[in-house]
Amino acid sequence: MKHVEGSGSILKSRLARGMFLLVAFGAVSICGAAVPGFTIDTEIPAGNAIVNSIEGDTVSIRQDLRDTKGEWFYWAFRVKGAAGRTVRFDFRKPDGTALDIVGVRGPVVSTDGGKTFSYPLDGKATTCGFTYTFAPDENETLFYECHPYVRADWDAFVARHAADAAKGVFAVETLCRSRAGAEVPRVRAGCLSGEPKHRFMFTARHHCSETTASWVFEGIVDAFLADDDLGAWLRANVELMGVPFVDYDGVQAGDQGKNRKPHDHNRDYSEFIYPETKALTEWIGEHAQGRLDAFIDLHCPWIRGDYNEFVYATRKDPKITPPTAQEDRFSEILEKIQSGALRYKAANDLPFGKAWNKGVNFAQGWSSVIWACHNVKEPKVCRAMEFPFANANGAVVTPEKCRTFGRDIALALRVLIDER
Ligand SMILES: [Zn+2]
What we know:
It is a single chain. By secondary structure, this protein is α+β, with helices and mostly antiparallel strands. The chain has two domains: 3-144, Sandwich (Immunoglobulin-like), CATH 2.60.40.3120; 151-419, Zn peptidases (Aminopeptidase, 3-Layer(aba) Sandwich). 24% of the residues lie in helices and 25% in strands. It has nine helices and 22 strands. The protein has a seven-stranded mixed β-sheet, sandwiched between helices. It has a five-stranded antiparallel β-sheet with strand order 1-6-9-13-11, with no helix packed on it. β4 and β5 form a beta hairpin. The protein is globular, with a radius of gyration of 22 Å. Zinc ion (ZN) binds at residues 206-207, 210, 266, 299.
């Protein structure tokens, strides 16, 4: 799709990739003045939505699942020309069934073209819809299921660190070409001038719609470049290796990513059908000789409920992980030293065998962490971490808090290494 106009009668036509174009004709009358109908489109970064219908000021809309097996919950769209109106957005399947795909603080909204975002309907949205009143001069509004983070955000981050690149402590390179032909970035930071004492690797967006992980990733890289004691120690001792977008094409397209058919990027480490996963493992082998002190894969969980509204680590089968006491200690340190407001508790870590964290969840193929547990030589920490979309133990999840938590991860790794 990409463009839908309301309100009145609707013309519907099918476009490529299962997307729909909906155009509505006519005008509506507000206080006696004829105003043109508003439009809905997905021509925004990582846009994703299918409009079922627009009737008056009620929109029925749903996520575009594309190649997802089963349901997932990512969506993003723009409304134009609705200034002064109050519009109801209901998330529904084509058969009318309600879809519980609105985040726990309602939509993430931007009224400045995507420069800034907030949760203006926190506490006012339901799980399957919200009502939004557009200000009298509000002619373009972006609605996202979660804070967006695409290549342009990464490029802006890289541009902020141009001076660090010039100093030789920050380097963005190409991991590989994606299936769509794009150059997939990889990053190194910290001790780049000689052989480092330690190497930490961080990955994000194995599941492309898990955006808050990217803000944590930024915070980790920031820690390596900061003009403070931690930054100086990291630059003297550690090389960061990072892949900010493992499912690069999915990030740019606004796909769900999770449960992509035939399997998603984080179930690809048995088969390697995606160029990014293969390149990532080869990079570890060639550049780090298979040796990393830490491998941490950053994710976001389900949209709401237990194990979805706090930060936690998913612990792997103790038979394959680094010594459990060491993993436990890292979680303890992280809880103790955290300076941000995401309120991580080590006790919230998800042990192997509990909830969804079971062997059967990986029947489709190994995850990156399972691969790393089997292949990386003597890691001290090897885990996935989950960062909720909107609520973390009561705290509002924001990019800045996620960045601070990223720094806390880097600090906790330093403390763990210093203790040994
Ligand atoms: Zn994930």
